[in-house]
Amino acid sequence: MRVSVPVRLGALTAGLLLASSLLAADQPAVKPAVRTTPGAAASATAPATPGAPGTTPAPTSPVSAASAASRTAAASRTAAASSPPAAASLGGVPGALVTTAGGTGPAVVQTAPGTIAAPPGANAAPAALGQPRQHIFTLRQMGSYGTMELRGIDPTGYLNADVRTDEVVTGAKLRLVYTYSPSLIYALSHLKVLVNGEVVATIPLVKETAGQLVTSEINLDPRLFTDFNRISVQMIAHYTLDHCEDPHHSTLWTDVAPETTLTLDTAAVDLPNSLALLPAPFFDQHDYRLVRVPFVLAANAGLPALHAASVVSSWLGALASYRGARFPVVRTAPADANAIALALPGQVPEGIALPEIKGPTITVMANPAAAPGSGRKLLVLAGRTPEELEKAADALVLGQAGMAGSSVVVQSVDLGPARKPYDAPNWVPTDRPVLLRELVSDPQQLQVSGYNPPAIHVNMRVPADLYAWARSNVPLDIRYRYTAPSSWNDSILNVSINDQLVRSQRLKPVTRASDEARIAVPVLSGTDARATSNIEIPAFRVGSNNQFQFQFHIDSQKASLCSSSAADIARAAIDPDSVVDFSGFAHYTALPNLADFANSGYPFTRMADLSETAVVIPDAPDAQDQEAVLTMLGHMGQWTGLPSLRVKLVPASQIDSVSGDDLLVIGSGSAAQLLAKWGKDLPLLIERGKTEVATRDQKSGWPGWLGGTEDDDNDDNDTPKGRSIVSLGGPMAALVGFESPLASGRSVVALASTSSAQLGDVLDAMQDSGKVARMRGDLSVVRQGDVEGLRVGERYFVGDLPWYARLWVHISRYPSLMALAGILAGLIVAFTVFWALGRMASRRTGD
């Protein structure tokens, strides 16, 4: 015993010494080096740049580049574990950050521990990568539509930033602007930043900047970025050392400001010339910006080339969806963009060399005007005849999924059966009840987690001419599931449409009986409760473009300070089998209504393929006229979800050939002369340096309660009417709507301007949601970037209603007359009943 005891104590002592030495050796990798510079302002951090010299083999695609980078990163993490910490300088080191209070004052410079040390040459840009580009994402563009709130029960916020297929990230910097609680224990509190699940930085929360607006700039490792990326900001915060700390406590908060940005430096990747990649790179689902694709048309291109281009532009518009699309027309291939060219014999754009055309041909090639290695592509549609060119365009939008190689020759195209009214894929069917699963791309969009999760959004387009004469509400049969509270509390579900509250439903707790009943089916057991609610949506809340918002709030179940709270995070979901029903509504509306046109393209989009629409253009259109045609048809594709396969395109001189169609007029050149011919039927006429506009009192021009509306057919209508003519002192553009002078019940919408150059002002306004909201009536004037909607002309009605419903509609335009008719009807009924009762009394008395 005298021998064994000293041996054990010696072994224990040696073990303690070894452990302490290991901790001392590992100390720099655990505790970051922090240097405070009094009075120094934070400087901007340059994005991550290549480190040691050297090159790596050029990847053939972003996917291969990402996989190669991930293999390199795996080896570099091992080397980083034994490497000394990086010096406290930024220099583009991934993980380095600068923290500044309020943008000025002391700057804290920190080098994040565990920085990935890349082997020599790993960070160098691949030799085959093309021109550098830079993208700056705002907080809104990354999916947070306001301040991102981090709380004790929901401490993590998520930001999404995707990378185009033809780009690879070479540098990244997150500029995080935030404010945090001044009531924390700062030694235990910090922010953790992750990219695709990898920790890239920790930001200490210090007392000196608590409650102030703080800016931290973090260099991110570009090798962590793939096509789809998620950046997480997690708050780890404590306000007490007590083991009964409440995660719902109000002092646990951090707000990430909308000024937060992510800057990505990318390099172009030269994709192979393959039609199998379509619609990329002309449309990339990873790119959330406005889709801008130039169309290259020869200076002498005729209607067939423009018609084929319009089919393609409507297809791209349908793909662009909420992003919006713009299609400028150029005469030569642009050097800085992917473009689409259309060619016929004798109508080949300058600078494009094509082999012999052997039929309807679709070819993708390197853009001849772009720099070598830029990755810019040119998609060429060609044919020997106008019919072949249109066949190539139809094949592209219908059959691109079956294409491969750099070029194909189209054999045949079948456009399919004629469309039916109101069957656009982007519109809610109005002939049957619709499941919510049909309105979302993925049922996962109907699920949320957290105690105060973000709202569930369901977008819904309906025809603009729905008329609620037989019913005043839209039935919504909603079924939902949630983590049920154990007792009654403030857990609720708010149901809204277009940000207007419709129903606030309290969430019921789980009773013991119902919980035991679910045990009989183990696969469905758990803490989730199910409920059903029948909600009536007021019809007047529904427009042509709508959004349901389902907002869950699951209240805390903590009863006292030291009681336990739920370990499992709360979950909630709207059942995909919930039903909304528009089948009881008729199609009837008053036109012109530019609000319907600007939001859904009505009445042109009534037929999804635009088979009853004709676009009227000048006999000699210039590039601005052609851009207006392509961009407007891109909007049509966005609204319907289909390419405009059957739209007609005619010059103004041949207007009589489409007299039975709805007309979209591009009003410059000879088309402006056509509008001048119809001048007395137009609310506004822009002609030869002057404007002629119908005038009326706008207050009485909009519907009122007592009198009729401005469209009364009564010649005694006291609404002042007239026309004024003024000389133009500057540029002007307008959207004008009126009934077609060629056919009763058909509509005309004209883009009118002082010159074709001002057509772009209307196109710009159509892409601004704030300006679209101000378009209404039959005239929307665009001047100096502002939009004013007016009602100056007569209205007409389109649609299908029974005769008695039509009578009711027209009588309802006179509320005072309706009130008088109601009084008279009541008196008639009263006198009739009085007379009938008198007769009955006389019979009983024998009189």
UniProtKB/TrEMBL annotation:
Keywords: c-di-GMP, Cell inner membrane, Cell membrane, Cellulose biosynthesis, Membrane, Signal, Transmembrane, Transmembrane helix
Pathway(s) annotated for this protein in UniProt: Glycan metabolism; bacterial cellulose biosynthesis
Record region (Disordered): 36-69, 693-722
Range of residues in the leader sequence: 1-24
UniProt-listed Gene3D superfamilies: Galactose-binding domain-like
GO CC terms, sorted: plasma membrane
Localization per record: Cell inner membrane
Record's bilayer topology term: Single-pass membrane protein
InterPro entries: Cell_synth_B (IPR003920), Cell_synthase_bac (IPR018513)
One record GO biological process: UDP-alpha-D-glucose metabolic process
Domain of life: Bacteria
Residue stretches spanning the membrane: 817-837
Family of the protein in this entry: Belongs to the AcsB/BcsB family.
Function as written in the Swiss-Prot or TrEMBL entry: Binds the cellulose synthase activator, bis-(3'-5') cyclic diguanylic acid (c-di-GMP).
NCBIfam families, A to Z: PRK11114.1-1 (NF008323)
Assembly and binders: Tightly associated with the cellulose synthase catalytic subunit.
PANTHER family noted in UniProt: CYCLIC DI-GMP-BINDING PROTEIN (PTHR39083)
Protein name: Cyclic di-GMP-binding protein
Taxon lineage: Bacteria, Pseudomonadati, Pseudomonadota, Betaproteobacteria, Burkholderiales
